[in-house]
Design goal:
The chain is α/β, with parallel strands linked by helices and 443 residues long. The chain has 15 helices and 22 strands. α13 links the parallel β16 and β17. The longest helix is centred in the first third of the chain and has 14 residues.
Length: 443
């Protein structure tokens, strides 16, 4: 698939690199010559230096041969205009990154097929994680009927040290399925003989009413968060503060810049706003942090986010969530004081990748510590899988079906569950198995 990417900043560069590694035919348009040169050296792609909204620059990318244009620069206007112009030049589909709420509501008549806002997506993810203290992932499917719950397995987990086949036979209070474990940077698709170890990043699929049970199975101690401390005043910090305030939680915002703090105080009048260094133990220590607190570090500087999270955890915070731009940090952080990491790059990828995957893919979820994906895929009536049970399916070893949405029903399947046409399958897949999975259920 030929894909044109307008903007090679943090989001565009990450997506371009990921798609290039997958073997997609990627064309990148970046107006900054230095950044364009960096991308040209880093990935196997045609890189064009110029304004992605310019007709002449877009012509160099040959949009008539492209199936998809992703406009993800930091300028809403450039992104919208690039999509509109590329559509007139024959591109198949367009996706625009738009952050201004006013612009999102005023796109009628403009040729933008789909709008994404990575900041909004990340803020919603963070708010859900704060609400469910201790989990590293809480991803809902089927309008909230199914939930993928992730976390670090602790010594309290009844799954640790026991093969999953035996554990599932013993723990039957509700339906659950272990999907995968990530151990020392290696992703293991779970099967009956898999034994969970303490410290594993464990992913479980359950019905949404059973999220608390899933947390107990991972070994997460349930605590109700009463106060959220947000470090930073970036757009994602502002949006997260608004969402957390809406659910009635007490709010503290800390930032080292006085002018930015004044803006925060104007936008969030009920919040306690503190001007200070969030990495200073004395600043955080004055807040009497305890297990009722979640600390969410959302500055644009990884070092400040990570150190602030570590200090907060040492002072007694129940949950620490850190924004990261360098995803290579993630594997180094597990178990040392950062419970969860979030990334606007991953949020953007989750919104975009469904347009790249083959078949009727309705959503794609990526992770910070593994290149595996969870896809929601609709089974084609022509698929060879229709009528077969999961045990009978020629499913590649790097994939597992974790949940099924069938009409208004949602359930965690067993090996004897038969596939029906138009089922929506929630599938965890490694990159090596993804093409086979898409082919099996789409034709």
């Amino acid at each position: 698939m030929r894909i044109i990417i307008v903007g090679a900043g943090a989001v565009g560069g990450y997506i371009a690199e990921r798609l290039s590694l997958e073997g997609q035919d990627v064309v990148v348009i970046e107006k900054n010559p230095r950044r364009a040169a960096e991308i040209r050296e880093k990935i196997d792609a045609l890189v064009i230096t110029g304004n992605g909204a310019s007709t002449s620059i877009l012509a160099e990318a040959d949009p008539g041969q492209a199936e998809l244009l992703l406009a993800v620069s930091t300028s809403d206007g450039v992104n919208i205009l690039a999509c509109h112009t590329a559509t007139r030049m024959g591109v198949g589909h367009t996706v625009a990154r738009v952050e201004d709420p006013g612009l999102k509501d005023g796109l009628g008549g403009l040729a933008v097929d789909f709008v994404i806002d990575p900041v909004e997506s990340a803020a919603k993810e963070i708010t859900a994680l704060v609400s469910e203290s201790g989990v590293s992932e809480l991803i809902e499917f089927g309008d909230g009927k199914l939930a993928l719950v992730g976390g670090t397995a602790t010594g309290r987990s009844p799954l640790v040290g026991t093969p999953l086949r035996r554990a599932r036979g013993r723990l039957r209070e509700y339906d659950w399925l272990a999907i995968a474990v990530v151990r020392n940077g290696m992703t293991i698709v779970a099967h009956g003989d898999t034994t969970v170890e303490e410290g594993d990043h464990l992913l479980l699929m359950v019905l949404s009413p059973d999220v608390e049970g899933a947390k107990a199975m991972i070994g997460i101690r349930n605590r109700k968060i009463r106060r959220a401390l947000i470090i930073g005043s970036t757009r994602v910090a502002h949006r997260t503060a608004s969402l957390i305030a809406e659910i009635g939680m007490s709010l503290v915002v800390i930032d080292p810049d006085l002018n930015r703090c004044r803006i925060v105080a104007e936008r969030h009048p009920k919040a306690l706003v503190i001007t200070g260094d969030p990495t200073d133990p004395e600043v955080l220590g004055d807040l009497a942090i305890n297990h009722d607190d979640a600390v969410v570090a959302l500055t644009g500087v990884d070092s400040m986010n990570l150190i602030g999270s570590l200090v907060a955890k040492a002072l007694g915070a129940s949950t620490t969530i850190s924004r990261v731009t360098r995803l290579s940090y993630v594997g180094l952080l597990a178990g040392i004081g950062v419970d969860t990491t979030v990334s606007t790059r991953l949020a953007a990828a989750n919104s975009i990748l469904r347009f790249v995957r083959r078949g009727q893919v309705h959503s794609v979820t990526t992770f910070s510590d593994t290149d595996a994906e969870v896809i929601e895929l609709e089974v084609s009536p022509r698929s060879e899988a229709v009528g077969q049970t999961l045990l009978e399916l020629p499913l590649p070893t790097g994939a597992v079906v974790g949940g099924i949405l069938r009409g208004a029903d949602a359930f965690v399947p067993s090996g004897m569950t038969a596939i029906r046409a138009c089922d929506h399958l929630i599938i965890f897949t490694l990159p090596s198995a993804r093409a086979a999975v898409e082919s099996l259920f789409s034709s």
